[in-house]
Amino acid sequence: MLDYKDIIVKHFGLGMSGRQIARELGVSKSGVNDVLGAFKRCESLDFPLPEGITNYGIAAKIYGGSPGAVGRDMTYACPDFEDIHKQLHGRKNMTLVYLWNRYMKTCEAEGRKGYQYRQFCKQYSRWCETNKESMHITAVSGQKMEVDFAGKTFQMVDHLTGELLDIVVFVAVLPYSQYIYAEGMTSTREPQWIAVNNHALQYFGGVPALVVCDNCKQAVIANRDWIAPELNRDYAEWAEHNHTLILPAKVKKPKYKSSVENAVGILEKGIFHDMEEHEYFSLEQFADGLYDPCGAGIQQTDGGGASGAPGAVRPGKLVCPGLHQLL
């Protein structure tokens, strides 16, 4: 969705042309000019804009119809966000992923285009803001896996060559259960990135509906507006093969992957302190340090899972009914 408010202020307040605004915001000139033209034709809105008006409020006035029906291409079906909000808060274990899939099926049946999941979520968030509702998303078993690299790195002496190598720690977590998987890597190139993602799925015993990743180059080429990021081709093909969806977190917004941020914090404030006191000569030896229950200080939970850090549950013992089986 274009930032209508910013476009109008830049044009009428700062005297910028449509071309200048488009260049500064990184959007199409035709889109900017369309907004300005609709604003000039609107009889119920003028500049300066009313205090507190939102982009959806502007869109509702200059284009007519409901704020959800923003845009010029009316072949896009407008989601019924009021009903979506009721379903999300009124039905146990209801998720935005399920509601989006149902919305897309309706669009297909009606022969209309539907918003992709990222834009669907963004528009729902804006609807909540306009209607002063909270966007509460409940974690559901097996729905999502978050992945990232830990900031702390280690060093390893190659026992064959004597070369000093850096070890980067890959971390994956299931937000619902807070199960954590961690693995050391001496290379973070695409093949190794795909491999550690596979190892995480094998550890968890299945594939989640969504994988939320950081905007690292192994996963994302560009993510300027969060709505339509350009994924690394290998990672996109990996997701397609496993029938899952990649959702890069919003740039510089840790809350979009809060569970893995928390998992990294647990590791860095706990087991990593013990691990940095040791020397490592292989990744296998490093892995033994990661998966030492005594070193991690882990307690077994009533459900047979791990609480807070890796090590308490070995692969094959994890039960997550929401995950679908690996291919």
Task: Please tell me about this protein's structure.
With 327 residues, this protein is an alpha/beta fold. It contains 13 helices and seven strands. The strands form two sheets. It has a five-stranded mixed sheet. It has a two-stranded antiparallel ribbon with strand order 5-6. It starts with a helix and ends in a 31-residue tail after the last helix. The model is unreliable at 65-74 and 293-323 (pLDDT under 50).
Q: Could you please say which CATH topology of the largest domain applies here?
A: Nucleotidyltransferase, domain 5
The H-and-E topology, N to C, reads as HHHHHHHEEEHEEEHEHHHH
Give the low-pLDDT segments. 65-74, 293-323
Count of DSSP helices? 13
Distance between the ends: 37 Å
Biggest sheet architecture: 5 strands, mixed
| CATH architecture classification name of the largest domain | 2-Layer Sandwich
CATH class of the largest domain: Alpha Beta
CATH superfamily of the largest domain: Ribonuclease H-like superfamily/Ribonuclease H
How many strands in all? 7
Strand content: 5-15%
In what order do the strands lie side by side in the largest sheet? Answer: 3-2-1-4-7
Mean pLDDT: 77
**How would you sum up the global shape?**
elongated
The percentage helix is 40-55%
Helix-strand category? alpha/beta
Protein name: IS21 family transposase
